[in-house]
Amino acid sequence: MSNTQEFPPPVKWVDDRLGIAKIGKKNLRKVFPDHWSFMLGEIALYSFIILILTGTFLTFWFKPSMAEVQYNGSYSLLKGLHMSEAYASTLDITFDVRGGLLVRQIHHWAAVLFIAAMMVHLLRMFFTGAFRKPRELNWLIGFGMLFLGIIEGFIGYGLPDDLLSGTGLRITNGMIQASPIVGTYMNFFIFGGEFPGDEFVSRFFIVHVLLIPGIILGLVTAHLFLVVYHKHTQYAGPGRTQKNVVGYPLFPVYTAKAGGFFFVVFGITALMGALMQINPVWLYGPYNPAEVTAGSQPDWYMGWLEGAVRIFPGFESHFWGITLGWNLLIPALIIPPAFVTLVALYPFIEGWISGDKREHHLLDRPRDVPTRTGVGVGFITFYALLWIGGGNDLIATHFGVSLNHVTWFLRFAVILGPILAFWVARRWAISLQRADYARLTHGLETGVIVRSPEGKYTEKHQPISTYEAYSLTARDRVVPHEIGPETDDNGVRAPRRALNKARAALSRFYFADAVQKPTAQELEEAHEHAHDADEIHELTEDTETYREVTSDRS
Amino acid sequence: MSEKRSSLSPARFLSARRRHRSAGLVVLLFGLLAVGSAYAAFAPDDAVADNSAQSQQIEEGKKLFSVGCSSCHGLNAEGGGNGAGKMAGPSLIGVGAAAVDFQVGTGRMPAMQPGAQIPRKTPAYTQEEIEALAAYIASLAPGPAVPAQDSYDVSKATDEQITRGGELFRTNCTACHNFAGRGGALPNGKYAPSLMGVSEKHIYEAMLTGPQQMPVFSDQVMQPQDKADIIAYLKALQNQKDPGGFGLGRLGPVSEGLWGWLVGIGLLVCVAVWIGAKGVKAKGAKAHE
């Protein structure tokens, strides 16, 4: 109470009514750790705010209607053409509303960045193991936002009713129709009849401006609430444990850093909106199902789906008067949901494999869980190859290669590439782990070559600092999940044996090859050995250069 | 007998010999001579003069053809093999002057090497030489002629015509050439080239003759006014500045996504690294590492 008396009158007035001092005292001093990779989610959050601001501006002029009108605005190349009101009003925003084009472009760039930032943020979570207990649910919430963000973006892309967006919707319409039995019904339900009909713009509009943003907003709130509740994760380092958070308080440090970063994000997005032309709807012309254009691609986040459809061989089967278009069914309705489900459930999958029930507030270095890192790189490779498939025509024209060659290459690469990438990344991570192990036990290679009186050449090793040693050893030992005995004491077979065997096999695959941090005993022995050795160690072909040489300073 | 005969009047002379066995031949010769003389007398003089100039041009074209084209297209433009059972160059009989003007005028012919598609390059022949080549090819068989200049002159096109041309362009051309005429990929290394910087005449001729992968849009399928409108739209498009900043190649969302990641996420991550590296300078304390 004594504190409140120090407040200036307006603050006191508010505090008396809302009790902000109590809330603020606790939350303004909340500590967050400092690292650039913790700011990726912020980019997404700020892009979302920019999207709401610019989107509101656009709704003032956008007319979500497919009524046919004649265009009489100031863009002469389309003057007099019949088009939907949605497209005409988009042209009006572009050419006749002051600042309209700028805001439209900021909106679109912010959408591109929103989803890109969410994805980069997700990768950071993945590779550092931030999704582990207790944060699995927050991973799911984040995934939900990413998923909804992609749907939201795609619907927004469909709203202007230009030739590009109409073509995109036509492909979506084809994918929906490809689903067996329910396809046509779903299609009629979504479009209110045959494609394109005259309803989808008004329907998509309300989903785009109200429904999905509302849900995302709710999820953002839950996401941030959970970040506060769980407290932020941190990278291992001196003084950082599973039980504390080392960093700076929200006020004043992070209010300044994060607030400033918001303006940076807004500034960069605005610069992109001002300087880089995006979605030039006036060039595409109004949608007409009889027309199509080369370069018809979705925005980047749907590109992998487009690629899957593009590279999939065309075949279909007919039975009992039903046509099943496998060339759409598999790449559009089976592979993407399967991929996406794997991503969403990954924390639970890894939790089950590792059998790890501990809470984790210290982040993993990607190298310390080599198989996870490999899986992540494999997933990225898979995604990127499909991405390339989505732009196969531009790859062909810009690199002077045959479209067919690109497609055939991708058909194999999309299967072999991720396996190869997994293997390379995993081995790479294990090698880095071994290097860390060597640093811990034998110190740093100094590059100083010493010649002894007998004429031997040796390299001096220097011990690493205790800070670094702490950082390198802060992680947990993760050993493969042990399968229990086949039968218990009474000779009864353990239940779910096959499942447990599979789990143990996966666990070995995950953790058996990872280099465990040295035990205290191992470290001691290594250092002992260094003392015994004559400060320097002989460097011959069959001697490991890493071994020993730790000075007394340790 | 001979004296008597020679004293006969010409009428009697002809009359007496009207049943001679070569009389019919003589009449035929006279007839031909009369028709020939009459043709020479009545045919317009300038046509005769032009004919000789044209034949000279054709002759010159034939010479150029023998040197520059015949190795692939055959000595008489009948098409030629490459010696391995494959076609080196198609027959040019009946392709018309428009095709020659397009192919040679855009530098596609003479081709440097066979390939999936012959690219556009700097023309190897002067306009005069191209005309000679075109005249030679046109002389082999009828085909589409080089269009007259007023058929593709779009400098006075109205807004209405441009809009109409846009609709025609989107209906007939964008599927391969892209919405902004930037070109696109076709199967097996072939492609629809960019239409930027192509002259009005060459666009018109391309529609007329359907070079390489392109279908023919003959005057019956697409009327000359339609062609002119499409050209008017393309020229308006080409001259239009991008109102939204850098056009990013006018290639659609692929290039936008690429730039969004490189510039947007790239810059933002750089800033994040910078902010993350900035420590806090508390009063009286040393800067955080």
From TrEMBL, chain A:
GO MF annotation: an example: oxidoreductase activity
Which cofactor does the UniProt annotation name?
heme
Q: Where is the Cytochrome b/b6 N-terminal region profile domain?
A: 10-236
- Domain of life assignment: Bacteria
Q: What InterPro entries does the record point to?
A: Cyt_b/b6_N (IPR005797), Cytb/b6-like_sf (IPR027387), Di-haem_cyt_TM (IPR016174)
Q: Where is it predominantly found? A: membrane
EC number(s) in its UniProt entry? Answer: 7.1.1.8
Q: How does it sit in the membrane?
A: Multi-pass membrane protein
> What reactions does this protein catalyze?
a quinol + 2 Fe(III)-[cytochrome c](out) = a quinone + 2 Fe(II)-[cytochrome c](out) + 2 H(+)(out)
UniProt subcellular location: Cell membrane
Q: Does the keyword Cell division apply?
A: no
Q: Which GO terms describe its cellular component?
A: plasma membrane
Return the Pfam families for the record.
Answer: Cytochrom_B_N_2 (PF13631)
Give an example GO biological process. Answer: respiratory electron transport chain
Q: Which UniProt keywords apply?
A: Cell membrane, Electron transport, Heme, Iron, Membrane, Metal-binding, Respiratory chain, Translocase, Transmembrane, Transmembrane helix, Transport
Please give the start and end residues of each transmembrane region: 43-62, 106-127, 139-159, 205-229, 250-276, 328-349, 369-388, 408-425
PANTHER family per record: CYTOCHROME B
Can you name this protein? Cytochrome bc1 complex cytochrome b subunit
Organism, per UniProt?
Kribbella rubisoli
TrEMBL record, chain B:
**Record-listed E.C. numbers:** 7.1.1.8
Q: Which reaction does it catalyse?
A: a quinol + 2 Fe(III)-[cytochrome c](out) = a quinone + 2 Fe(II)-[cytochrome c](out) + 2 H(+)(out)
Q: Where found in the cell? A: Cell membrane
The regions listed as transmembrane in this protein's record are: 258-277
Q: Which organism is it from?
A: Kribbella rubisoli
Assembly mode: The cytochrome bc1 complex is composed of a cytochrome b (QcrB), the Rieske iron-sulfur protein (QcrA) and a diheme cytochrome c (QcrC) subunit.
- The protein's name in its UniProt record: Cytochrome bc1 complex cytochrome c subunit
- Per UniProt, what is one Pfam family of this protein? Cytochrome_CBB3
Q: Which GO terms describe its molecular function?
A: heme binding; iron ion binding; quinol-cytochrome-c reductase activity
Annotated Gene Ontology cellular components are: plasma membrane
